[in-house]
Amino acid sequence: MAKKYLAYIRKEIVPEQPAPIASKGIVGWARQNLFSSISNTIMTLAGMAFLLWILPPLYNFIFGNAVWPGEGVTVEDCRAKGAGACWAYIDSRMTFFIYGFFPKDAYWVTQEGFIASIMTYWRVNAVFAVGTLLLVPLMWPGLPHKVLNAILFFVVYPVFVFFMLTGGVFGLEEVPTIKWGGLTVTLIIGLVGIVVSLPLGIVLALGRQSKMPIVKGMSIMFIEVWRAVPLITVLFMASVMLPLFMPVGMTIDKLLRALVGVSLFSAAYMAEVVRGGLQALPKGQFEAAASLGLNYWKSMSFIILPQALKHVIPGIVNSFIALFKDTSLVAIVGIFDLLRAVQISNLNLDWGSKNQAITGYIFAAVVFWAFCFSMSRYSIMMEKRLDTGHRN
Amino acid sequence: MKNKIVTIALSAAMGLMASTAMAGTLEDVVAKGYIQCGVTTGIPGFALPDADNNWAGLDVDYCKALASAIFNDPDAVRYTPLNSAERFAAMSSGEVDLLSRVTTWTMSRDTQLGMNFTGTMFYDGQGFMVRKSSGITSPKELSGAAVCIQTGTTTELNAADYFSANNLEYNPIVFVDRDEVVKAYEDGRCDVYTTDVSGLAANRSKFADSSEHIILNEVISKEPLAPVVRQGDDTWFNIARWTYFALVNAEELGITSANVDEMLGSDNPSVKRLLGVEGDFGAPMGLTKDWAYQIVKHVGNYGEIFERHVGVNTPLALERGVNALWTNGGLQYAPPIR
Amino acid sequence: MADLKRSQKSAPKPSFINDPKVRGLFYQFVVMAVVIAFVYVVAKNTAANLAAQNKSTGFDFFFQASGFDIFFTLIPYDRASYYWEAFVVGMLNTLLVSVIGIFLAAILGFILGIARLSNNWIIAKLAMVYVEILRNVPLLLQLFLWYTVLLKTLPGVKNSLEWFGAFVLNNRGLYIPKPMPDATFNWVIITFLIAVAGAFALKYWAKKRLEQTGNRFPVFWSSIGLLVGLPAIVWLVSGANLAFEMPTLQGFNYKGGLSLPSEFMALLLGLVLYTAAFIAEIVRSGIAAVDKGQTEAAQSLGLKDGDRLRLVIIPQAMRVIIPPLTSQFLNLTKNSSLAAAIGYPDLVSVFMLTTLNQTGRAVEIVFITMMVYLILSLVTSAFMNWYNARVAMVER
Lengths: 392, 338, 396
Prior knowledge:
The complex is a heterotrimer of chains A (about 400), B (about 350) and C (about 400). Chain B is an alpha/beta fold. Helix content of chain B is about 35%, strand content about 15%. Chain B folds into 2 domains: about 1-125 and about 225-330, D-Maltodextrin-Binding Protein, domain 2; about 125-220, Periplasmic binding protein-like II (D-Maltodextrin-Binding Protein, domain 2, 3-Layer(aba) Sandwich), CATH 3.40.190. Chain C has a domain at about 85-155 and about 260-390: MetI-like (MetI-like fold).
């Protein structure tokens, strides 16, 4: 019998125990995030009750009881009692929502199949495709040839869009702007808005920072007046008053009027975003540019603006989101953008039913949301990228 | 090469800013190769995009008839949707050649705005729609009712006039968009919906429970809806006016788009003159002598247009009523062609 | 030194064309000339066009009878009223919906912003989903949707929801009792105003006492007591009478009481929900911008939870929050102009649509409408700038 020691020395480490059941896995997560205190529990229950209250009817309306397009589905299905959203109606009007009155290609409209359905509107679809091809590499950070890409998108592409859609040259049928409509017009207004308002906004922002009192005063006046009034008054001015400003007997295209209004309006907002970037630059940059002997325009275009604009890319994207949402207002002055196309189709008696209008609005909301949400994600991503390494 | 591109670009840019000579609309139109026709921004039966994304309706067919008379092609038309606020400005600036846009013929518009009305394409009147369950039979019982109205129209003023003339309390709910008015009424926001009877019928057909709504018999205004041209261009005015008369005369003589070729061989002198078999009635207007034949061939007669877009077999389900020919007790009457 | 001076003096004078001052003047002159020429051409064309269209100009139409009715007015108005009265009606309606909207949107926005930072997962996610959906859909579309939903879900007149026989809600609007005070009731109101002043004085005194002695005084509850109790006593003692005019069903509609039409509610709902989504983001980033060290420092000073938020975090967050919040308030005011789309008689709807339609004075009316919004915006930003200057950190 060996000596008995009262002292106890542990020789090996106790094996690791799993964490208490209450602090790991779903239970632990729930305890931490949902039920950590009484008030927290009450909030959780309230939140769940809210979801239970809102989700089932919403699901039933949008999916459960909805009328989907298919063989033999008619307006009677949508008129039936208890029917939910009438997606069949959306499906039947889809080409109108996207292309408006744009004429169909005479050859392809007689053909069958998926390719034919794309080629029916090949001119508009080509515009969409080229736009996507130019935009994706432009927005993809890290890809080379940004300057060339930007020139292609901001200068060459609008010209391409103009000739492709209006036609009248290169053997293309001439299509007046009043035949454009739907999502096409919404995107065009957005495109023109950004292409015009960005350079104009830069000029205005520089004007506002200028040392010349008259230039500065005029820039401030322009920016502040445009920012103070609602877009609907600007559009109204463009649609009712712009024709009066023209020489007698000269008319100005309806869409062009709205474009002028939207562009000037968003230029004022863009100017303020750019000004933020200019003000954020350390004064040393201006002095450094001056000490190199660069004149005003050179120092601006090689030193100041590249830095300032890079800083405010998120801001530019955000004001573009605002611009894109604002395009829906042209519906009020009778331009057939997506919202107006939906509204006018809601009047169509062929699909007249109780949920026709609400289904149309939901569809439009989803489309707008998809565009705006992806842009806002992009803006956040850029913000994070630009942020790295710039923190002091 | 460079010059050529610049020229193309410039001409393209100018294309968006057209300069129009106000003198001879017909010459302008012929030079352009199409008619610029002002229509509504969307009223079922009168002008609305159809399933093929083309404008269709009674107003639209009038434009097509005019294009057939001039170009022998009903599709030589471009439609400009105009809301009530811009329509006359668009006319006087020369943006459109013609307004076929459910416009009520009134004296002030005819005499003060520099417009000419060509002939009543559709006799309308402002009426009221109520729910059957309300038990109302006359507008006189509407005191205190909430009335849904579209703004910027004669409707708004007519209603105000009517209610004050009859000492009734008046509670107007006004909207810019027609479909918002209808929705508000359908959802019970208003007791009454007032607009032209044709409009009431058009919208009633849309309701899920259309039998639950009645249109009161009494109308409170005369609304002759007529196409409009600019004052001071008699040739154009004559073409526009006689296009309408040709439509009505064709119906009276029993000429339809289906039998128009047969009718060329008719012995009836009236038919012969209308279709250009005998005499040349087109030349004084600057048209070919078969101008009316082309109209009927491409768009049909007045009755056909009516039945196609607003008649009993359409969702609007309107009876001919006052829009029947004068021979059937209606008001549609056209001077003879001779 | 002297050499240096001399060399500076003798530096070659830049040629006249290259003198920046001269150039600046020249550029400004050019800009000025272009603007003046532009304005001149536009004015000339406008006059020529108006003459060609036989249109009269001027502001005399303000004193003509309007001939149309408006269903929701804050001042007496009927179809015999002048156009200027219609203008005032529209402006008041715009102000009404803007002021109430700003107030509610700020509250909801702060709640949502704090909810987004909540420890509670479900609450934080709900707030996030709300913000991401609402701010990415055009407001005009939302207004159409809210209006449709409001009309479809609320009951008709015959089946109105009633509470206590005094509050009525149906798809025509919300009806509430209208207070009808008699003459002596003014004393109650005066007492209430005195109580408000008293509450402020109490707060000031309590703060002094806290600083001097460290003792707290329950300011909040005693103020409530003051505000409710004092007027109540005066009311009972003076025998003043406050009658209420109840909304009752007469014929087609509820009559009497105060009514808020559903167009007003839909517009308010749309504006508040939309703007709150933006304010929530502003509040969230404002609070997130406060350094974590501030919280820890406040804790180490022994400040209580509420005081920590109220005295340390919020004041610092406010500096970041105020400027963007101002522009949201302005946006809400401007966005209220979309009222016309759903039938609420605001300035744009009454003046720029109906009045313009009837009088045809496009230039005058659009100009006045823009001026009104310009002035509203200048006043709002002046006020917010003043407030911003007050909360701005005083650097020492």
